[in-house]
Specification:
Elongation Factor Tu (Ef-tu), domain 3; 3 helices; 3 domains
């Protein structure tokens, strides 16, 4: 074989190798995704905090030192349950003194009542004797005077008891101000003081939240004002429980936009989970469900290109990218719903590197993404 023929065959071999290498290893690096139908929800993502319409600040009514605190943060308490005792030695002394005084007067009164029964009988007997001429008028008057004295004593004792009971009631009323009780059943979410602290009137001691009045308050962007409505289901994830999804429901919308934040308030019901512990101030993320879809074609929005307000995707076709117009509906911030132009099972592409694909570009799939 001549040298020229050998060179010719070598050139042909190299060209074939280059074409094969280009075919198998060349082309634009792309990420592929198989379009599949699915059930999905269209929602608005919001953030918010746990609030309560019955958020009570329990205060002191007097200036005194805290003697004892009987609850801790997170404790569930019943209405009327004692939360704290303030130092009340002087008032306890006043109550004891009033009770002792009442007891003494009561004993004197009972003795007077026994004495007057005898005095009345004695007076009646002397009246009969006087009529018979057996005793003098003076003797009769002495018995009558004794009865009158005892009646006055009884009247005085009753007035003294009434006054002492008034003093006791006043002392007991003051004593109540030194015993801090829960005004309603609920949960102690904050304890602002410690044993030994000196507290003053109207000073906050505890924060009490009533679970039945807890709700979720979400801040919603104003452009969703028309989309969000009472009754819509809401999927909630609390920051404290990031691996669980709870269901609530929008029940109130404030048709007033905050000019500073550009948001309005949507109130969401507390999830109906009896063992769920949520407290005022906890934060959450939620999705308010606007629409519920069944068997629809949804693809990530980064696989969609826009050109002159028209949408298109790149389909895989015999190793090349085929530019295909589609009609879409923006589903959420990260996905779109394809209405026309794409069929289930077709593979769509996007460039792996920054930039855009071109129609009929040779492609090389480096990643097959799961939807």
């Amino acid at each position: 074989m001549s040298l020229g023929k050998k060179i010719f065959l070598l050139v042909i071999f190299l060209l074939a190798a280059l074409i094969a290498a280009w075919y198998f290893f060349g082309g634009t690096a792309v990420i592929a995704l198989k379009a599949e139908k699915q059930d999905a929800i269209k929602g608005i993502t919001v953030t918010g905090n746990v609030e309560s319409s019955e958020d009570i600040k329990i205060t002191a009514q007097v200036t005194a030192r805290i003697e004892e605190i009987t609850v801790n943060n997170g404790d569930t308490v019943e209405k009327g349950q004692v939360l704290s005792y303030l130092n009340r030695e002087e008032l306890i002394g006043a109550v004891n003194a009033a009770e002792a005084r009442i007891a003494v007067i009561q004993q004197q009164l009972e003795r007077n009542r026994v004495q007057i029964q005898d005095a009345v009988s004695d007076e009646k007997r002397y009246e009969e004797l006087f009529e018979q001429g057996a005793v003098s008028k003076r003797d009769l008057e002495e018995r009558s005077l004794r009865r009158l004295e005892l009646e006055e004593q009884i009247d005085q004792r009753e007035q003294e008891i009434s006054a002492a009971r008034g003093d006791l009631k006043a002392a007991q009323g003051k004593l109540e101000n030194y015993i801090i009780k829960a005004p309603l059943s609920g949960i102690i979410t904050n304890k602002f003081v410690s044993t030994g602290d000196i507290v003053s009137p109207q000073q906050k001691l505890f924060r009490l939240v009533v679970p039945e009045f807890i709700y979720l308050e979400a801040d919603v962007e104003e452009n969703a004002l028309e989309a969000v409505k009472p009754g819509q289901t809401t999927m909630v994830i609390f920051d404290a429980y990031p691996h669980r999804i709870y269901e609530g429901q929008v029940y109130l919308i404030t048709k007033e936009v905050d000019p500073v934040t550009g948001t309005f308030e949507a109130r969401i019901t507390r999830p109906e989970e009896p063992d769920l512990k949520i407290f005022v101030g906890m934060t959450f993320d939620a999705t308010i469900v606007i629409e519920d879809y069944t068997d629809v074609l949804i693809i990530p929005s980064d696989f969609v290109e826009m050109e002159d307000s028209k949408a298109f995707v790149f389909r895989q076709k015999n190793g090349f990218a085929s530019k295909t117009p589609v009609r879409i509906d923006f589903f959420n911030n990260n996905a779109v719903r394809v209405l026309e132009g794409l069929q289930e099972g077709e593979v769509i592409l996007k460039k792996a590197e920054p930039g855009k694909l071109t129609d009929n570009a040779k492609i090389r799939i480096i990643e097959f993404r799961e939807q």
